[in-house]
Amino acid sequence: MTQSSQASRQRYWRSVLQHDVPASLVVFLVAVPLSMGIAVASGAPIAAGLVAAVVGGVVAGALGGSVVQVSGPAAGLSLVVAELVHTYGWRATCMITLLAGLLQLLLGAFRVAKAALGVSPAVVHGMLAGVGVVIALSQLHIVLGGKPQTSALGNILELPSQIVNNHSHAVMVGILTIGVLVVWARVPRLRMVPAPLAALVIAAMTAAVLGWDLTRVDLSGGFSSLESPLLPQGDWHAIAGAVLLVALLAGVESLLTCVASNRQHDGPRADLDRELAAQGVANVVSGALGGLPVSGVVVRTTTNVRAGARSRWSTVLHGLWVLLFTAAFAWMIALIPLEALAALLLFIGVQMVNLGHARNLRGHREMPIYFVTMTGVVVIGLAEGVALGLGLAALLALRRLAWISVVVRQAGDRWRLVVTGSLTFLGVPRLTESLAAIPPGTAVELDLNLDFMDHAAFETLHAWRLEHERGGGTIDIDEMHGEWYAAAVSGARMLPARTPPKHERFWLPWAYRRRVVDSARQSDGLCAYDEMCETGPGHGPDDEQATPDLLEGTREFHRRTAPLVRPLLHRMARKQTPSHLFITCADSRVVPNIITASGPGDLFTVRNIGNLVPRASNTPPDDSVSAAVEYALKVLEVQTITVCGHSGCGAMSALLGEAPDLPALRNWLRHGRQSLARFVAFPEEDADAGPLDRLCRVNVIQQLDNLESHPLVENLVRAGKLELTGLYFDIAAARVHVLDRERFSAVPELRRG
């Protein structure tokens, strides 16, 4: 073993002792009371919950795909287990758990874990909330000194009688347990001891001192009291359904917990397929030993992370502590009142109705799914409630996919029709109604912002268009997303998925923003983008109408772009924090935000003819660029100044030849004389390029030198707090190059595999 590997192992074990061992003790103190309470709620032996805690910690912890997830008996499965125990008996339920584990192991081997994440979180949260309501209602009767009914509705109907007639010691210990749980979490100094453990200890000690008449936990015989699994008897269809239900519910809850745990720590990311297979092995072992079904548990996982766990040793050790405690101190568990466990479960059940999840779902309009699932679980049953939730989620998803918005407005003598969404046969009636509202013979602007259009919708729209134009009307069609209508007119194949737009319209010059015309008005049926690039502005039909003025451009911004960028600009309205000062030419073909793929707030830009930076020693001084440099460095604290030149620069051409008879321009170009002198001194530099392009590049390098003539810039560069960069934009090739004092190199392209 090398010295470095030995040192690495020492650091690893030091981390385990420092972080994982203390965390495992905290999780152990949380797991013991919760495991016993879930066993009570499931109608299973108390020891079955502890067996599941041990197996979940040791087996799932050692084999799982997450280093921090803690597995064990979960409250979300207690309703299923209680129903199985009632129908088949406990030993048969253990066999169903074992078979469910084998199914999970098979699913993990086929690597289908990510498919479980396709289940709507609204259904999962609604299911857990419904289970919480059912648990709370059933355990409330035990806290009140009575017995729970067979259904949630029965528990609700029986509740008034329980409240009026039962005032035994059970009520007192239940109130005491819940009171400790509520107060304990609100006192920071007490949080070192888990609230569930503290509540059960205080309740047990109080009941023993005061001599309350309560039912005690029966853990006689410890783990040896458990029996081996037995094949269930009955309809095999129902048994197979039970196995599938346990496997899927436990698997989905484990995987969702696994995904949530990734957000809580900075260690290795979880392997979902490995985690699902590990859960399968744990359920096989737990079922064989007579334990409850095992799944990942959010409460214990969160506790593990917050306690500082760094590796899977924390999870494994917590399972070993549960095993040692049960084997050596089972007599202590027997002192806990069952009514106190019922109060703990009541508290847990109420917490499972997480209103925070409901509020998060509201923004996505999934609240109905949550409440339908929860209500179905409470009123009908777990499987039925989940099925209702999944069905509603599928219907709402279908509705969203088929959503269509059709808006008709009149602006003077023109009409504007905006269609947004997926235009299918389901939206044809609404589209037809809107089209009928447009008078014949009018001028219409039709904006199609579609992610899909089926044949029925196209036939309806195209027939109306032909009829409207025969009646003397005009229609300008603008497809702002995929060109579904244009493709259908030309006979192109319509793909059943969203197609990428041919271009992003924001960077196209006004002259190229053409309205789509069909074959009735143009021979090829489409005005293709490639053809426009070949002909250019001013060479095609209707060009006098194809070039909007500046006001039309601003109207287009207000209509299409402003709604998209408004939230971003609103956040940065009070302050700008650019990272670059970008000095470039005033040439209209150079658009800094396009060639740098930057957005609002990224570049503090200075533009002038020739991208010139007057030297600090110039007489008389020119403060226009100096003021921008000073403000960018002292106020905005930019980290980079970039000078960007371009090919075919008119200012450099004027330096090489005779400057035009423009006095102000001639006066400004005196700041380029150093560039011209440098070009003359090194005539062979970049010999592959023509004289003009060589001067354009030399000019960029000279302006970087001019920047360093300013003391503020020079001091920051020497201190390593400022970087100067030279860029050169080849307009014809649409290519950006990096320049510096020694070399000229192209910015490398990202090549696709």
From the structure above, extract its key features.
12 strands; 753 residues; Beta-carbonic Anhydrase, Chain A; Transcription Regulator spoIIAA; four-stranded mixed sheet; alpha/beta; six-stranded mixed sheet; 3 domains
Describe the structure.
This protein is an alpha/beta fold and 753 residues long. The chain folds into three domains: 16-379, no CATH class; 421-553, Transcription Regulator spoIIAA (2-Layer Sandwich), CATH 3.30.750; 575-746, Carbonic anhydrase (Beta-carbonic Anhydrase, Chain A). 56% of the residues lie in helices and 10% in strands. The chain is built from 31 helices and twelve strands. A six-stranded mixed sheet has the order 8-7-9-10-11-12. It has a four-stranded mixed sheet with strand order 3-4-5-6, with helices on one face. A two-stranded antiparallel sheet has the order 1-2. The radius of gyration is 37 Å and the shape is extended. The two termini are 40 Å apart. Its cofactor is Zn(2+). Residues 17-366 form the SLC26A/SulP transporter domain. Catalyzes the reversible hydration of carbon dioxide to form bicarbonate. It comes from Planotetraspora mira. It is found in: Membrane.
